[in-house]
Amino acid sequence: MKLRNRRWLLGLVLLGNGILASPGVAETEPIAPTDPTTLNQLQRYGNEGRHKKRDQVTSVSQLSDVQPTDWAFQALQSLVERYGCIAGYPDGTYKGNRALTRYEFAAGVNACLERINELIAASTENLVTREDLAKLQRLMEEFAAELASLRGRVTALEARTGELEANQFSTTTKLQSEIIFSIADFSGDGGDLEQDQTTLGYRVRMNFLTSFSGRDRLRTRLQSGNIPFEQGETAMSDLGWAAGDSTDVTINKLEYRFPVGDDLAFWVTAVNMNMDDIADPLNPTAVSASTGALSYFGEYAAIYKTSEGPGVAFSYNIADTLNWTGGYIANEGSSAEEGSGFFNGGNNIFTQLTYYPSDRAALAFAYGYNYFAPDNVFVSGRNGSRLAEAPFGSETPTIAHHFLINGTVYFSDFFNFSAWGQYTYAEAKGGFRDGDSADIWSWAAIFSFLDLLKEGDVLGLVVAAPPNALQVENGPEDEEMSLLFELFYNFQFNEYISLTPGGYVVTNPTDDLDAVWVGVVRMGFQF
């Protein structure tokens, strides 16, 4: 037998002024015993009358949404003031018009039964009439199955909770992992890529997230992978999850983030701080390497990738719609050798101002300053042409000023457009090229079509120009801008598993290579 009625019915039934559930009542689908939400419903409703000392309602007038003209007013008044087993909600309402399931009804009956037992034990049995007890007996018989299920579920929950507490990994640490398998085929027009190069690779990341106060976070990330950089003879064709060709397990990130008040947070990173850890890159396809763009450059602008190492940073919410971030990264900060260290080696100073006019749009302006020490020059963050990475040679110390404008907008729940443009001014600071300068440009436009076949799916189209050194003083320069075209579709099977087929092409990557074609199938696991 199924029950659908209002919460008023509970008051009527308990006092005999209402009607017992019967086949004549309008029906609804019952909650299956295996429904994981059932126990939450039971507990939430059953607890309404259990906090007598703190929340107990002693008069029906305390319930703001109950009026004397309501058809069940007298029944509810008698239930509240005579038995005291209805507490209402914390906001002072009873919500009498909300639909009631049989399980909720059973929980309410159980709460009132406990209250009546307390009254009897306190020798106040004159408050309970024989007629009331007879009706309660009928209710117990009618809902015997639901009450038994309730008791069984509570017992099972207590046992399960005890088991989890006894065997949990840690009370302060959570594990988040991402595993990527990929098959990629690289081919080219000219150069050494005239024969296809097909690779099977992987990358594994395990994040241990620890919180000591509930608001701070210590992140320890372990990584292993076998996907090398520049598989297509140029950094512009790198896969987004390239991790180097060493299969050793390393500590890839070690950072601690803590708040100061409600609007200010600080980061202290001992291993591998990146600018995108702090500043929002405003690209929905960059949320995860296992579900987003396939190409490394298609993730987000090069300014976010120009440095990695130990560093400090902050994020400050100036207003509800305005965020300011900034930080300092030392490229060789873990080394004590001469010419390196936290302050006297390669470094990066960055800042970004991000404006959120609504929950569907954002606009950011970013600036970064880099000093690159000899033999560690990556002006474009391993995203651009060889000249864009080291316009004066890899042994020449170089400074770079990066300027970025970045934006994203959701035109609907199913379509997002993101774009950025970046200009970099680089200058040689030593050697025979001292004082020479270079202008480096890049831009991208990303079209994301969301939930096409099912919820979670993404069709992505990237049209971009990776960094090219179009003007280099007293030296060679890129003759024309390279372009990247990428198309991918992410099938999200569930919250843990995804499959992404797709591909991209990079035009004019080197002098002797007209194009690099990359076809990819990526399988991602997140847990």
Task: Describe this structure as you would to a colleague.
By secondary structure, this protein is an alpha+beta fold. It is 18% helix and 39% strand. It contains 9 helices and 18 strands. It has helices at 8-15, 38-46, 52-55, 73-83, 102-121, 130-142, 144-167, 275-278, 386-389, and strands at residues 5-6, 99-100, 173-190, 197-210, 217-225, 250-260, 264-273, 309-319, 322-330, 347-358, 361-372, 398-412, 415-428, 437-450, 458-472, 484-492, 497-510, 513-526. A 16-stranded antiparallel beta barrel has the order 3-4-5-6-7-8-9-10-11-12-13-14-15-16-17-18. A two-stranded antiparallel ribbon has the order 1-2. α1 (8-15) packs across α4 and α2 packs parallel to α5. It is elongated. The two termini are 41 Å apart.
Topology:
Blueprint: E1 5-6, H1 8-15, H2 38-46, H3 52-55, H4 73-83, E2 99-100, H5 102-121, H6 130-142, H7 144-167, E3 173-190, E4 197-210, E5 217-225, E6 250-260, E7 264-273, H8 275-278, E8 309-319, E9 322-330, E10 347-358, E11 361-372, H9 386-389, E12 398-412, E13 415-428, E14 437-450, E15 458-472, E16 484-492, E17 497-510, E18 513-526
Antiparallel strand pairs: 1-2, 3-4, 3-18, 4-5, 5-6, 6-7, 7-8, 8-9, 9-10, 10-11, 11-12, 12-13, 13-14, 14-15, 15-16, 16-17, 17-18
Helix pairs in contact: 1-4, 2-5
